[in-house]
Each structure stands twice: as structure tokens, then as C-alpha cells.
Amino acid sequence: MPNVRHLLVRTLVLLVLPIASFAFGLRGASGPRENDAAAESRLGEAVRRGELPSWDPERSTGVALAALSSPGAWDPVRAPRYLAPPGRAGACSDLLALILAGFGAWSLLARRATSARSCCFAAWTVQGGAWLVLRMHGPAALDAAAWMPWACWAVDGVRRGARGSAFALVLATAFAFVAGDLVAGAIVAAGALLYAAVGARFELSVAMRALLACALGFAAAAVQWWPALAARDNVVFAVTKTSAEEPSAALLDALRHAAGDGRVLQLCEGTEAQLALAAHGIAELAPARGPADRRAVELLRRADPAGASEDGGWRLAHASFVNHRVLDLLRVSAIVTRSPIENPRLTLVHFGDGAFVYGRAGALPLVRVVPAELVRVGGDVAVLGLLAAGGLDPSKTAVASTEDALPESASRAPFVPGELLVRRSASDRIDVEVRGSSGGWLVFQERFSDGWKAAIDGADAEFVRVDHACRALCLKPGDSIVRTKYEPLALRLGAALSIAALLVAFALAAREERARSR
């Protein structure tokens, strides 16, 4: 009974600071994590449907979901995103992280026979420091730092010969890296190793066991860091120097209505502040903050150099670019601006809250069929130049590089695109039923990535890159059923390494337990 009472008192004490710190978020206000609320909400909804999505079609022209637009997708501290509504999920995750850090600090000092009063104040100090880390550096760093006390607690157990301590150190290190911030995870691992060296008075056996456990923990987190590192080369991270302005609910509804299944661009002339649209599930081609397709940004910067931003991204800086065919290619179907503009391709659908929302005609559909005779030019630079010139109609053809090997289309009949029935059954799946086509190329107006796999009538098919940023399949004449899915190799390899590392750690722990029982 005393142990139960002690646990109850400790739980109540360690809830005081987190609840006091995040009461505003639990009431529904947006917390620091809500910058990624849209991506995390979509991930949570998919998981509740029994799916495990890996692609986010709402960010730019498509971004690897678990690796980039929702970092730390496998982090247990972020589990509330699967249960809580988007407006409260961030605050609940922050609360859980602070509770975890406080319990870790208390447990570490209690193992070292420190008084309960000292444990209490030490835990509060850790929680208060973690709260400041959250405010200054972001949730991924907080999630990783929350595992530092537990890693040191496990190291102390290794030094004392406590059962399961080495395996606990593997898990604590793995969760620190899984949080999505490799630097913070490395700091946790380095801190645990330093504590092992100093706390064990540089006893070699303890230091070596701690080093092995941290290495296995890093390998066990490969399901997070491997896909993230593999995807970074194809992504530009834009970070505005000024804070983005929160849009009203009416403005968001108008944007969703105007964009349909297309994308939104913001016209920001001079020093006008951008709106925080991506955080609310708006499919924005060039978001003010977060990941965007590198090839799409290259195309925009080449077509309109005036829109290039200092952070490496791009934004619509002048209304004269509204008619450019590159925007048709990238499926821009809505424009939002702070002042009225006149253009025959724009239709005003909303005015209010200091913003004008226009529907834009001419955006291409998600999937289209073009003739077998693609426009071929030499190299990416030539492709960019041809598309940026704006003289090519993207609704009638596509451009490919002569440096890329393309399968030969079997179509020789007069071109008939046929009828397309397109269904996105999940964020990382697009299925197309083709009826009565003369064949050619089935072009998907989303980012080309090696992770996309396809099957046409049950036979494997290979995507090729067209229009610099899009992907296409060679389509035979007649009717076809096309099924596509995003399955990146890096995610499978990372998951395999994670499972292998955990199995090795479990085998070593079982071996140690058998040796102890003899």
C-alpha cells in the first residue's frame, strides 16, 4: 500500500507543471505543434482506418509523409494525434512529453536513493527546462530530450546489474532518434554514454555495454531516419523570416471551395505577410513554411525568377505570372491575394478578412493522357527552359529528357485520350480506370519519386519522369486498370533494420538473463 500511495503522490506532483503549462492548449487553442497539425491529422485518420500512409499529397506536389511533412511519425510521445482532435493533439503530446521527462528524472534519482523531496524538485526542473526547449526549438527536440533521464536511468541500471537495463537503454535511445530530430537524438545518446563513463568511474565493461546499447538503439530507429535522409535530396525546406498570419475559418472554406482538388498559390507583393495555409490542410504549391518539391520549385524559379525567395523557396510575387502555363502544369486552381487583381482566367469567389480568393481556370486534372510522341529535349536544363518559356501547351503533350530511357509506346492510331475514372483510395494510392483510349502516356500531375510503384492490368509497370517534376506510365491502346502505390525502398529497408536491431537487443537481453539465472 505505501508503494501505491507513493506512486499516486508522484503522479499527481508530476502532472502539476505540465497541466499548468498547457491548459490553454487542452482547451482547444493551437499549440506549437499545430504547425504540422494538418499532416498529423491526416496520418492519424489514416491509421484509424487501418492504413499506414507514406505520402502526403497536400504538401506542394507531394511529399513523403512519415519522413518529412510529419517528422517523428513513429514517436510514441505523439500517439495523441491518433486519438485527440487536431486542435488539441499538439497540446496533449506536449503534456505527455513533459510527464515522461519528469517521471524519468524522478526514477533516476530514486534509483540513486535520493530523497523524495529532492526527486520532486529535480523533476520539476527537468519539466520546466523541457518546456523552454519546446518554446525555443520545437517539439521534435522536446520529444527527444524527454528520453534523456530514462537513458541515464537505464545506464545506472546497467552499472548496478539490474535486469533488463541494457534493453531499456536500447529503447530509450531508439525513441530519442525516432522523435524526428537526429541532432537531439545524438545528444541524448552522447549524454547517456558520458553518464556511463563518469558514473561507472570509467569502468570499461559498463561503457562498452552502454555503447552497444546506444548503437542498437540508433539502428532500431532506422524506420524514421532512413526514409527521412533518403527523401531530403528531393525536397526544399522553406522557412519564412516573418511569422505567418492565421487565416479565418471563412477564408479557409473559400480556399477549399476555389481550389477543389487543385492547389493554391499566394500572391504576396512587397513585404506582405503570408497566410499559414499548409497547417490547415490547404494544398499549397509553394508553402511559406515546410517541405516543397525541389523540382517544382526549380521550375517555378526558372519560369519566374522574380519569385525566388532568400530561403530557397518561391512565392508568387507579381500578378502577371498568373497566366503562365507552368501554373497549369502544377495544377494551380486558386489564387489568394491581399489586394484585388483583374485577369480573364480569375473569378472572385470570396472577399473578407483582408484577403481576396480567386478561382483560376486552366489547371490540369490530377491524371491525363497525352499522345505517344512526347517532346524530347536534351537534359534537365533544356526541359526547364522549354517549360519555362511557356509556349508549350501542357494539356496536349508532355516533355521528357533525351537522357532518360523511355519505353516505346505501341500506339500508332489517331490519338483518342479516352475516359478516365480516377480514385484516390488512400493518400498513397491512386487507381485509374482507362476506357477507350488509343494509348500514349498516362501522366500523373504529382511529384516523380522512385518510391511510386504501378501495375497495369496486373503487370508491373515503370514510372518515367516527364515535365521535369511529374511521373508518367506508358499506356497501351484499349481499356486498362492502373493501380499505383507509394512504397519507398528506404522505408522498407529502415523497417527491416529496426526489426533486426530490436531482435538482436532482445536476444542479448535473453542471453544475459540466462547467464544470471545459472
Computed over alpha carbons, the radius of gyration is 26 Å
How many beta strands in the DSSP annotation?
19
Largest sheet: 5 strands, antiparallel
Which segments are poorly predicted (pLDDT under 50) over 5 or more consecutive residues? 24-32
Judging from the principal axes of the Cα atoms, what is the shape?
A: globular
Question: Which assembly state applies to the chains in this document?
Answer: single chain
Task: Quickly count the helices.
Answer: 16
Strand order of the largest sheet: 12-13-19-15-16
Q: Which tags fit this structure?
A:
518 residues, alpha+beta, five-stranded antiparallel beta sheet, 16 helices
Summarize the structure in words.
The structure is a single chain. The chain has helices at residues 2-26, 37-48, 65-69, 86-111, 116-137, 139-145, 148-160, 165-178, 182-199, 204-220, 222-231, 249-259, 294-303, 325-329, 379-389, 489-517; strands at 55-56, 63-64, 235-239, 263-267, 289-293, 332-337, 346-352, 355-360, 367-370, 375-377, 399-401, 419-426, 429-437, 440-447, 452-456, 459-461, 464-466, 470-475, 478-486. The protein is of the alpha+beta class. Strands 12-13-19-15-16 form a five-stranded antiparallel beta sheet, with no helix packed on it. It has a four-stranded mixed beta sheet with strand order 4-6-8-7. A hairpin with a 2-residue loop joins strand 7 and strand 8. Helix 4 (86-111) runs parallel beside helix 7 (148-160), helix 7 packs parallel to helix 9 (182-199) and helix 9 (182-199) packs antiparallel against helix 10. The protein is globular, with a radius of gyration of 26 Å.
